[in-house]
Each structure stands twice: as C-alpha cells, then as structure tokens.
C-alpha cells in the first residue's frame, strides 16, 4: 500500500493493520508527519505539531507490539486534538496569539480517554478565537483552508480538525461543538461529524461555561470511525453536571444494525431565519428521496425555532466574556460580543428561556424519530470574505449561515453531519440528522444506512494526491 492510500485508510482499519503487524505505529506516525510538513503550510490545519512527542510515543508503542496479547482499540493510530482542548505539556492557544506560551499541566478528560484508547496525538488543530466563529481565521495565525478548494474556509470552530482529516493529515480528529462547530466544518470538508447528546461526553476536569450548549465530539471520514471515537469519548466522570447512562451496546456496533422503518421529518427552512440556498437544499432533498427509497416514512415539517434565537445568542456571547482573556487582546468581533454581554440576571433569564423553548422543540420528537435539516443555510464562504464587514454585520451573517445548527445545542439533542455530494465549486454538500435526546444509536444506524447507499469514502481532495 502506498503512503497516500495508507493515510486515507480508516482509523479502524489502521488499528487492524497495527494488530496484524502490517504497519507499525512508528511508520504510520512518520508518514503523517511527512504529509503535515508538506501540506499544512498551504492548509493551516495545525497550530502546533507535536512531532517529538508523537515519535517518542510511536517508538514506545512499536516496541510494545512484541509479545503484546491485548491492546486498546486504537493502539498506535494517529489523532489530532482541537486547540480549545488541553493536552498536558502542549501549548493551548484557544486561537489567540497572545496565548502562544500557554502550556497547560493537565489533560482534559476527553484527552485522557483518547490516550487510554491507544491513540497517538500528532498535534493541536486550528480553531477560531475562543471557538466563536464558523470560520477559522484568527488574527496572527494562518487561516484553516478547505482541502477541496483552498480559496474557501474549512469552517469553524473545528476548522483545522476537519481540514486535517479531509486532507489525510490525521486518521481521525477530536472537535467540539457549541453551535455547529463540529457539524459545520464536517459539512465544509466532506466528513462525518457527530455532536453527541448533552451529558454523553464529560467536560472534566473543568466546568461547563455555556449551560450545556457545548460538547466534545468526533470528526471522521466514515460513520464507523466517528461512532468508534464516540465510544472512546463517552462516559460519566465524578462530579459532571450532566450525565447519561452508558448505552446498552457500543455505538460502533450500531453501525452494523438496520435502523428499522423510521418516522422522519425534514425541512429546508429554519424559522425565523429563512430558506437554505440551492446547494444546501439539494443535499436535503436528495437525502429525502433516498430515505423514501429505503422505506422510511418522510414528511415535510419542522419545529419553530424562533424562540431559541435570542436566548441562545445571549448565552453564547457570555461564554466569550467568561474566557478571562482581556478584551483588548481579542479580535474585534469578540470585543463586540463582550460589549454586548448582559448582567448575570439577563444571563440566567436567557438560560431559563432556552430551557422552556427546548421543551417545545423536544416535544416535536414525540411523533418523529429523526429530523433532516441542512447543516448551514448556504455554501461555504471564501477565506476572508467577511473580513471587511463590521462586527455587527458579520454577526448577522453568522446567525443566518449557521441557523440549522444551534437548536440541537440548545436542546442537548444529538446530531450528525453527513456528506452527500458536491456543489458546482467542487465543495462537499452535506445534510444534518437530528435525533431524540440520548438517541445517538438511532442516528448512527440511519447514517450508516445512508452511507452504504451513497458511499463517500472513495472521494479525496486533489490537494492530497
């Protein structure tokens, strides 16, 4: 197998290659590091490459293969970590150049689980400043570009993670999603991205600043890889403010099961923010047709999300103010958000409003198993396309673009972004599946069925040849 084919092999297959001694962790890591050195300067997917640590870990794991009887599930497989997530001894910039010397002394809980699963960390991927924006263009740091067309954004805030996986610069990636920050980059870059249910993945050892809006989750090239990484990430840690019972079976096992005949709703209109553009609408309608052919019951209807918009914005922007970074050290957009942040009373009122509206949205799923939506309301923007706009103008464009994503963050429901085709600019088209609370398994079964009917794994950006 040549190097390009090897790096585009799924993470699950790479784990099997290592178990069968067909490739060593060291060979795999060195191959990825060579590609990062070659491609990342164009792509901007990594802020920090931990080459020395990765090689040392890979050498140790390669030596451990001799005589090893039992190995963790992803032993020796390379992964990337988003630069909003702490890895002990590795700088964490949060997308702000003033923090280039910030080196945490602890691992976030999700990183602990990733290490325990045997992964080797290649580095920290690019994020928008504080994860605030759906594009990744932090001041003083390279923008994350789309591997399918370098003029366009890879999305945000997990833009670097998505670009790295899509371009073959890691096998799989950890991301986080507080308003579409996994699903949006997955859609931009042609990946599978899962936003888990609230309480599925721990925020340990730190707290949750956004009242349950944000969560860690996987980005991958296949549903099975994403499901398997979600298995690794999931689980309660003592003291978590939200938690779910462990599923009866693994999420990876769910990819091998039929979903049964589901009741599915769909919409291309997000009230009160408008209709999806032709490309995003096409992705939904193609998926609807395929779902009907697969025997599901499909009906055009959607909850009213209008009551969610204002309280969501108030809670989201309060997270920027809670970062502890001085306003003057931030980008103008984040400075503007901080200036808009209300009082503690206004914040708590917004949280209460979110909870009330979320009850109404979740009630919609009493008669529906899955809701199919666009991921974004229009195709990816070009890098720097909104740079000339005022913060207020940019904010309004962001709110409209990402409109289909925040509802699942507000309600805490699971959602998956799934690639379905290409638009006229050669960029991936995607669709979003939203499920009932704690029903990731249903979404994963359905996503695996759709993936099997419309395979994507053979597509690679020309950049990666």
What does this structure look like?
This protein has helices at 3-7, 11-19, 25-43, 51-64, 109-116, 159-166, 183-189, 223-233, 251-254, 278-293, 306-321, 332-340, 344-363, 391-401, 406-411, 440-453, and strands at residues 46-49, 78-82, 120-125, 145-146, 149-153, 172-177, 192-195, 215-220, 263-266, 269-270, 274-275, 297-300, 370-373, 415-422, 428-435. The protein has a single domain, classed as Alpha-Beta Complex (Amidase signature (AS) enzymes). The strands form 3 sheets. An 11-stranded mixed beta sheet has the order 1-3-2-6-8-7-14-15-13-9-12, sandwiched between helices. Strands 4-5 form a two-stranded antiparallel ribbon. Helix 3 (25-43) packs antiparallel against helix 4 (51-64), helix 11 (306-321) packs across helix 12 (332-340) and helix 12 (332-340) crosses helix 14. The chain is of the alpha/beta class and 465 residues long. The protein has 16 helices and 15 strands.
Which characteristics define this entry?
465 residues, alpha/beta, Amidase signature (AS) enzymes, 11-stranded mixed β-sheet, two-stranded antiparallel ribbon, 16 helices, 38% helix, globular
